[in-house]
Amino acid sequence: RGFAEFKNRKLGWVLVGHALTDEGARALASISGLKSVHIEHAKGLTGAGIRAFAKHPTLERIGWGAPNRWDEAAFFETAASLPNLRELRPKDCIVTYDGGLSHLRAVAGRLQTLDLSGALILPRDLDRFRAEHPQAGVLTIDPRRLEHISIQRLRKHMSPELSAWVDAELARVRDPSKN
Fold first, then answer.
1. Which of the residues 12, 17, 84, 106 has an alpha carbon 20 to 30 A from that of 34?
2. Contact between residue 50 and residue 64 where contact means Cβ atoms under 8 Å apart
3. Contact criterion met (CB below 8 Å) for 172 and 179
4. Given this model, what pLDDT does residue 172 score?
């Protein structure tokens, strides 16, 4: 039953967690007036579940935090398909330009906020996005907070370049005299 009960009700904002599956995401995506959804630590959610939100007519904000099975392309392609997208928040994950942010060209001029304060991204990838979306506010992580992201969990997914950047930022934060 779950979210299916809310299909025709006014439910504008939802925060869901651990128990969300692809099936639950499909039911959640069927809520017609949904404006904002943020998903945290959903162990049973895959890119297929995220894609259930594609072209949702009222969804303005979408976030996916601490994904067990991060599917960067599914997240950003889905976001780019949303006709009313205003804010996007990937969290506890790695974001790249080629694998994700490049899909947002479709929402250039419409996206108001990209919150990367809980994500890892190379500066050059961030610069490319900013050049294409000068009107979008971009929140990034304060290097002093890098240790609060699941670095060790993400380490196995990092490119050598991202790993070196993270290590340099962590060293700079731990020893400010190296700035």
1. 106
2. yes
3. yes
4. 86
Q: Is the dihedral of CA 145, 149, 155, 159 positive or negative?
A: negative
Q: Compute the chain's Rg from CA coordinates.
A: 17
The residues near 141 (Cβ < 8 Å, ≥ 6 apart) are: 116, 117, 118, 119, 120, 149
Q: What mean pLDDT value characterizes the chain?
A: 88
Residue with tokens 């906020």: 113
Which two tokens mark 48? 């297929």
What is the separation of C-alpha 90 from the centre of its chain, rounded to a whole number of angstroms? Answer: 2
Q: Is the dihedral of CA 131, 134, 139, 143 positive or negative?
A: positive
Is pLDDT above 90 for 101? yes
Q: E strand or H helix at 174, and its extent?
A: helix 160-174
Per-residue HEC secondary structure of 139-162 comes to: EECCHHHHHHCCHHHHHCCCCHHH
Q: What's the pTM?
A: 0.87
For the record, the structure tokens of 90 come out as 């990937």
Instruction: Give yes or no for residue 59 having a pLDDT over 90.
Output: yes
